[in-house]
Amino acid sequence: MSTNEQVGSVSGPGNELEGDLASRIAIVRKVGGLLLRLLQTALAIEAGMGIYHLLGSTLLARMGYAVVTDPCPVIGYLVMGLCMVVPTIALTRFWHGATGRYSMQLSALMLVALATLALLAFGHVISVKAMYSLGAPSTYAAVTVFVIVRSCLHAESIPEEGSAA
Questions:
Q1: Count of Cβ atoms closer than 10 Å to residue 54 Cβ
Q2: Count of domains in the chain?
Q3: pLDDT beyond 50 at 27
C-alpha cells in the first residue's frame, strides 16, 4: 500500500470535521444561489415595472391610455402585471435556462397574486391605493414561495451521490 493510499484511508475526527464543513459549505452555496435567484427575479420584476412606466408615459399616453385607466385604474394595474411577466420569463427561460413550463408556472403565479388584488380592488374590498401598495410585496412573496418549493422538490428528485438510481 502506498503512502497516498494510507493517508486517504485514515478515518478520524479530522475527516468528520471536513465532511461537516463541506456539508455546511454546500448549504451556504444553495442558500446563496437561492437568494441570488430571488434578487435577479426581483430586478426583472422591477424592470417590467420600468418598462410599463416608460410605455405609459410615451407610447401609451399618445394612444389615449389614460382614457381607460383613469376611470378604472385596475386595468392599468393588470397591464403593469403583464409588463412584469415579460422580463421574468426572459430571465428564467434564457438566463437561468429553465424549462418553458417552469417559466409559465412562475409567471402564472405572479399574475394570480396581482389578479387577486385587482379583483379585491374592483369589488371595492380594498382601495386602489392598497392594491398598488400590496402588489409588489405579494408578488415577491409568491415568487419566493414558488422558488423555495420548486428548489425543495427538485432537490428531492435528485438521487444522493453514491446511491443507486
A1: 12
A2: 1
A3: yes
What burial class does residue 75 get, using C-beta atoms within 10 Å of its C-beta: 0-12 exposed, 13-18 middle, 19+ buried? middle
Is the pLDDT assigned to residue 159 strictly greater than 50?
A: no
Q: What pLDDT sits at residue 7?
A: 47
Domain that includes residue 119, residue range? 15-157
Q: What is the pLDDT of residues 35-47, one digit of tens each?
A: 888 899 889 989 9
In a domain, 163, yes or no: no
CA angle at 50 for the pair 68 and 127, rounded to the nearest 5°: 50
Cα dihedral across residues 147, 164, 97, 31: positive or negative: positive
Nine cell digits for residue 112: 394570480
Collapsing DSSP states into helix, strand and coil, what is residue 74?
Answer: helix
What is d(CA 80, CA 88) in angstroms, rounded to the nearest whole number?
Answer: 13
